[in-house]
Amino acid sequence: MLKKITSSPVLLSLLLIIMGIVLVVWPSPVISAVITLVGVGLMVGGVIAVIGWLRNRDTTVASYSRFGSGLLGIVAGIIITANPIKVASFFPVMIGVVILITGIINLVQSLDLRKMGYQRWGIPFILALVTILCGIAFITQPITALEIPVIAAGVMLIYDGLVSLWVCTRK
Question: What share of the chain is helix, strand, coil (3-state, %, to 5)?
Answer without folding.
Answer: 90, 0, 10
